[in-house]
Amino acid sequence: MRRAAKVDTNQPEIVQALRDIGAVVFLIGIPLDLLVAFRGKLTLMEVKNPDNKGKVSKSQQVTIDLLKAVGVRVAIVRDGEEAIDAVS
User: Fold this and answer.
1) What value, to the nearest 5°, has the Cα angle with vertex 83 and ends 80 and 85?
2) TM spans, by residue (predicted)?
3) Domains in the chain and their CATH numbers?
4) What is the 3-state secondary structure of the chain?
């Protein structure tokens, strides 16, 4: 059985920042942490801790590269400001 993925401590702040601007946010976990709908566009987000210790794993990078190759908007975010910039 698969363990629940660890949620980054900054994820609630990021989710709230996005919701405050009117985005709809789904906590999906797979393939990345968040699915964000804003102004008619969808963006997948991978949340990483702002201390820069949170790095994208090799499997996450493969997923990100595959998604970007087919035109999916993907962002790696560490705080609410980065998340808002990614959907603006």
Assistant:
1) 110
2) 21-38
3) 11-87 (3.40.1350.10)
4) CCCCCCCCCCHHHHHHHHHHCCCEEEECCCCCCEEEEECCEEEEEEECCCCCCCCCCHHHHHHHHHHHHCCCEEEEECCHHHHHHHHC
Phi, psi of 33 (to 5 degrees): -70, -45
Whole-number Å distance between alpha carbons of 22 and 38: 7
CA 18, CA 65: separation in Å to the nearest integer? Answer: 24
State the pLDDT at residue 52. Answer: 67
Please write the tens of the pLDDT for every residue from 14-54: 999 999 999 999 999 999 999 999 999 999 999 999 886 77
